[in-house]
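Support case: user asked for a sample of complex input and structure output to validate their parser. Sending the pair below.
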Amino acid sequence: MTDFGFVMTLARKDLMQELRSKAATVATIFFAGIVLIIQAFAFSEREGLLAIIAPGALWVALAFAGVISAAQSYQSELEEGAFEQLLMYPIPRATIFLGKLLANWLYMSILGFVLLPISIVFFDMNLGASWLLMLLTILLGTLGFALIATFYAALTANLRARESLLPVLMFPVVVPILLAAVRATREIAGAGNLGISLSWLQLLLAFDLVYVVVCTAIFHFVTED
Amino acid sequence: MNPEPAVELFALARRYGFDMVLKDISLVLSAGKTVILAGNNGSGKTTLLKILATRLKPTRGSARVFGFDLHKEAKEVRRHVAYVSVLGGHYQTLTAFENLRLAASLYGHDRQEVTVAELEGKLDAVGLLNARNKQVRTFSSGMKKRLAIARLLISDADLWLLDEPYAALDQEGKSLIDDLLIEGKSQGKTIIMASHELEHTRKFADGVLALQDGYLRKLESSPLEVVSD
């Protein structure tokens, strides 16, 4: 089997586990939905304010939900030594990271696609003809977020205070991605400058490429004991 | 059979914080031998097995498995080693068959190499064919142990590291482990087994080693070379 085959096998395993347990799905959809509704309720008084805060609201909901799903993706690994067993198979450590990344990215992207129409309805977002660009923003933004979340979730997986440490450690690193994603969303949804939105998307792509190389290269240090 | 010694340990030590669990352990174990690793709880048996399985790094010293350096050639070592842990290492929401299929894939066997019938054969060999489609979270400890044995059987490993293989098993399960040891020995596998059941297991072994105060001692005359004794 090739390294690509290992990556696909591990991603399929993670997704199958999530489909069975629905542990992350229930928590993240509920949490993200509540975050969006509360913000929509809080900022609905002033005319036009909802559309202004919509990009931030969407990415705040996605980011918090993403932390939950990343932490959950390692929870099943910790039960009864499954992750330890995984590390003893004759496969490159990078395939373990990329497999989990693929599953987390796919999950976060789907979550983003679910939250987008909710945001459009609650926040009067107007995508116009730029909806394809918006989907691309979600794909690139969630990729960057999943990269950092998957890496730091592995780093904190064996710690007792992992639930509190994970967001504390990862959010400073993920801020550039969130800022770029929010700005790109603002330009796309706010009938802004399409050229500027493309610049932010290029920046997002650059962040993603750098993070995927760095995280994959140093992942084996995270798993050493 | 592999001409290299199965295991070579040179002045191996492992520390957890300030606690030196393994001290200056040296050992040469020929391929095809079965060894029991005895010792009290916390004596370092599992630590030594995990070092050999590349899961833990030694604090000092070096080790080779079938001529491959544990640290520099870890991936090669993993091809030759299969470790059965006390915990089992299964995914709880996957079925017995899905866990075994996953293990076969991660050992590098694609679906043409290891067929459904072969996987079912392994499950049958450990008495789990009827539980094929049950999620592992519904299994008893003994059933999880049996599934771990099935996983061992689909690996091509030449070195079997068994951590308390008799624990949690009923009489039928213990007979299964007995048969496994006899079969492994006949296939030329090298087996290192941590066990408290010395009386029962010594008949399968070429030698008994004991970990005491962090040092490895040879308990009985055997073809093992324990340098630190």
